[in-house]
Amino acid sequence: MEIKRPSKKRVLRALEKRAPKLVETGRKTLVLQGTKTSEVLNSVLSEIYHLKRDSAVRFSRRNENIRPFESGGETSLEFFSLKTDCSIFVFGSHSKKRPNNLVIGRMYDHHIYDLVEVGVEHFKSLASYKYDKKISPRSGSKPFIVFVGEGFESSEELKHLKEVLLDLLRGEVVENLNLSGIDRAYVCTALSPDRVYLTHCALRLKKSGTIVPRMELVEVGPSMDLVVRRHRLPADSLRKEAMKTALDKPKKKEKNVSQDAVLGKIGKIYIPDQKLGDMNLPNKAKGVKRERREAKMQKEQDRSSSKRHKEDSN
Questions:
Q1: Source organism's superkingdom (predicted)?
Q2: What is the CA radius of gyration of the chain?
Q3: CA-based angle 81:87:89, to the nearest 5?
Q4: pTM, two decimal places
Q5: CATH of segment(s) 25-248
């Protein structure tokens, strides 16, 4: 089969941006809904999109035949992931058996990697909180994520939920942080082996008498209880493939360098021909001074020897 290369550089750059990377910078989130949703669930999806507006895609239309846990029901999700280049999704649906149902899943190579299904209870929206709007977190800022409770270490369901929430909420991966730019925190509290309280807080920096300021948490919403219903872990082979590190990357071939069993690493250095005759020497070179001084001394010795010879002959 013939492989077509893009003729425009803009298209080529877009394809390279979507290409798989060993070290990911950030994950885009796809927010969508099923055929039937409740008012509470619509508010949850809208506010998740509001919190991740800079790195999220929101589908407002209803989508049929999306069942992530069933075979064949994930085809539309994988197509949307490929179309929008999103590696994590939040899918909302509502039914009598599973009211206010939220499915959070991660993708690998635009195929479903793992899934966590939670039920939303005791939801409080952003509008229900009253606080000073001056401390409202800025869009796109890097958040703190705090997990409180032993359940995140002992319960398998909460361990899995913790991994998924970290990928969902952390934003872009950075190496350095400016303390004044951190203005929000997500607090996840394990209330029971299958229930987590999630809330969103703003950070206020106050004077503490030292260099490090004192921090206060102000709850700004949204907040909700997440009850774990079902979860599906990835297969061992898929997990191993997805967790490859940069050490597994083949080394780039070095030019003019070879390996020898005895000498080790051998390199070739190419130096152009040096034309010493055409080089411009300085006017007062030390070598030239020494030659003149030696010639002068030799001339004086010759004069003195010739004078002595004349005196002897007389």
A1: Eukaryota
A2: 36
A3: 75
A4: 0.72
A5: 3.40.50.10480
Residuewise pLDDT in 10s, the chain (314 residues): 566 777 888 888 888 877 766 666 668 899 999 999 999 999 999 999 998 888 899 998 999 889 999 888 889 999 999 889 898 999 999 999 999 999 999 998 889 999 999 999 999 998 898 888 777 887 778 888 999 999 999 999 999 999 999 999 987 777 787 777 788 899 999 999 999 999 999 988 888 888 888 888 899 989 999 999 999 999 888 888 888 776 555 667 788 888 887 878 888 888 888 777 777 766 655 555 677 778 888 888 888 887 777 766 66
Residues 6+ apart with CB under 8 A from 214: 205, 206, 207, 208
Pairwise CA distance, residues 295 & 301, whole Å: 10
- Provide the β-strand partners of residue 226: 120, 196
Annotated domain spans of the chain = 25-248
In this structure, how many other beta carbons lie within 10 angstroms of the beta carbon of residue 200?
Answer: 21
Q: 261-267: long-range contacts at Cβ-Cβ below 8 A with a sequence spacing of 24 or more?
A: none
Nearest to 90 by CA among 139, 29, 166, 20: 29
Q: Which residues of 103-125 are buried (b: 16+ CB within 10 A; e: fewer)?
A: bbbbbbebebbbbbbbbbeebee
Cβ partners under 8 Å of residue 259, min gap 6 = 265, 266
Closest among 140, 82, 102 to 228, alpha carbons compared: 102
Cα 152 to Cα 156, 165, 222: the distances in Å are 8, 12, 21
Nearest-angstrom CA–CA distance, 98 and 100: 7
